[in-house]
Write a structure and sequence with these properties.
Blueprint: E1 9-13, H1 18-28, E2 33-38, H2 41-55, E3 59-63, H3 69-83, E4 88-91, H4 106-134, E5 137-142, H5 155-175, E6 180-187, H6 193-206, H7 211-219, H8 230-240, E7 252-255
Parallel strand pairs: 1-2, 1-4, 2-3, 4-5, 5-6, 6-7
Length: about 260
């Protein structure tokens, strides 16, 4: 399928690994130009070189922390100077702040909100005016299932993700008349570093004797009985960024192997 995004300019935050990296790759393959950001410059530069070699596409790497306004401004400015505009924004940078309510700290919750909720908002504010003027834009927010199905262990992430679902729906209504489509993707468990960094805590929460057992127990919670692969999510995200998705906005797409049982 021709995604219709050749020469479109994209920003993918959290683009050095996992879902962000694979999304950048899938956007590059049909000819989009992509700026990626992450906090660690060395990993980011390595990813840029690997994506360039694999796709032959144009990749801009900008070390930036989405929790810092000046960093997001520098990222958008660099992408605009390099590509002339920003047509696509994939908000992927973020963390999973897990633990039950009494174990969480206000400082930890604030850090989660700064990186994810306010980080997404910062990037959107800086790119959406240009999209509206050109009457074409795609914004995809990578959120997470805890925003739809509350889990006591995922309270911090769930609170943040619920706000982002509201943001996505609200902005889809506001920007839709100007040709800017705003959607969300809610991943389940995906085989990325994020899972591995949280595996020990999740093992304890699930009553598992090891991280491997925790993985098996977590995988059984979805209909497919396995973890997702980053490239599987990236294909769906890229579709939402494409010309082919021209009548889709305000959607929150579950990419979780059938884990969530809610109707929305």
């Amino acid at each position: 399928m021709d995604l219709g995004i050749r020469d479109r300019a994209a920003i993918v935050t959290g683009g050095s690994r996992g879902i962000g990296r694979e999304t950048a790759r899938v956007l590059l393959e049909p000819g989009a130009r992509v700026a990626i950001c992450a906090r660690t410059a060395a990993a980011l530069d390595q990813t840029r070189d690997e994506l360039t070699a694999k796709t032959g596409g144009e990749v801009l790497a900008v070390a930036a922390d989405t929790a810092i306004q000046a960093d997001v401004e520098r990222l958008v400015r660099a992408a605009t100077e390099r590509f002339g505009r920003v047509d696509i924004l994939v908000n992927n940078a973020g963390t999973m702040y897990s633990g039950r309510f009494q174990a969480l700290t206000e400082a930890g919750l604030r850090a989660q909100l700064e990186t994810k909720l306010f980080g997404f908002m910062r990037a959107i504010r800086l790119v959406v005016d240009g999209m509206r003027v050109r009457r074409w834009g795609r914004i995809v927010n990578i959120i997470g299932g805890a925003g739809k199905e509350p889990d006591p262990y995922m309270f911090g992430s769930g609170m943040t993700n619920s706000a982002l679902l509201n943001l996505t729906k609200s902005l889809s209504t506001e920007f839709g008349p100007d040709g800017v489509l705003v959607n969300a993707v809610c991943p389940g468990w995906v085989d990325t570093g994020l899972w591995r960094r949280n595996a020990a805590g999740l093992a304890a929460e699930l009553g598992a004797g090891s991280e491997d057992e925790a993985r098996r127990l977590a995988a059984r919670k979805n209909a497919l009985g396995r973890f997702g692969r980053p490239e599987e999510l990236a294909d769906a995200i890229a579709f939402l960024c494409s010309e082919r998705a021209s009548y889709i906005t305000g959607v929150s797409l579950n990419l979780d192997g059938g884990r969530l049982k809610s109707l929305w």
